[in-house]
Amino acid sequence: MRIAIVGYGTAGQASALLLSGQGHQITVFEQAFAPGPVGAGFLLQPTGLAVLARLGLHEQALAQGQRIDELHGSTPRGRAVMAMRYADHREGCFGLGMTRGALFETLRQAWTGAAGIRTGIRIERYDPATRTLHDAEGRVHAASSRTRCASR
Q1: Phi-psi category of 35—alpha, beta or left, where left has phi over 0 and alpha has psi -120 to 50?
Q2: Strand partners, 66
Q3: Residue 147: its pLDDT value, please?
Q4: Is pLDDT of 49 > 90?
Q5: DSSP state, 116?
Q6: Distance (Å) of CA 149 to CA 3, 4, 64, 90, 131
Q7: CA distances from 54 to 59, 61, 90, 105, 128 (A)
Q8: What domains are there in the chain, each with its CATH number?
């Protein structure tokens, strides 16, 4: 199938990799003129690590992040409000602290189609009746009768 992905954030990147790996033709629309990470860092949860493993990028991510085994939170007065050990949920389970830049580059480098992203296009809606995407400039991006669209 021909598949349009709107947005080249983490979900768009992973979707492009997974779907192109299944043989689909992917077109990515990104509103930024130069796609890149937004924000500083985050904690990648076990489900996200499983997606990276499926993409063959687990070890690369581990090399660029920091393993997190426990999370603790308290009020300004020191009262505990959270104490969570990943291993209590499943043996070998952990989170991974990463910069958004490291994850963005890992995913971008893994997808050979990244150079063909359609940048500077803000998609505002999808018309299921005509299977077309409509952007902020009033342009219509037509698709074949077999195209499916995935949102951000």
Answers
A1: beta
A2: 97
A3: 44
A4: yes
A5: G
A6: 6, 5, 32, 35, 8
A7: 11, 12, 19, 17, 31
A8: 1-35+117-152 (3.50.50.60), 41-99 (no CATH)
Structure tokens at 150: 């995935």
Alpha-carbon span 8 to 37, nearest angstrom: 9
Residue 151 has pLDDT above 60, yes or no: no
Alpha-carbon span 33 to 18, nearest angstrom:
24
Band of residue 40 on the pLDDT scale cut at 50, 70, 90: confident
Extract the runs of DSSP E, i.e. beta strands, from 7-136.
25-30, 41-44, 66-68, 70-74, 80-85, 95-99, 118-119, 123-127, 132-135
pLDDT at 142: 75
- Tokens, residue 44: 């990648």
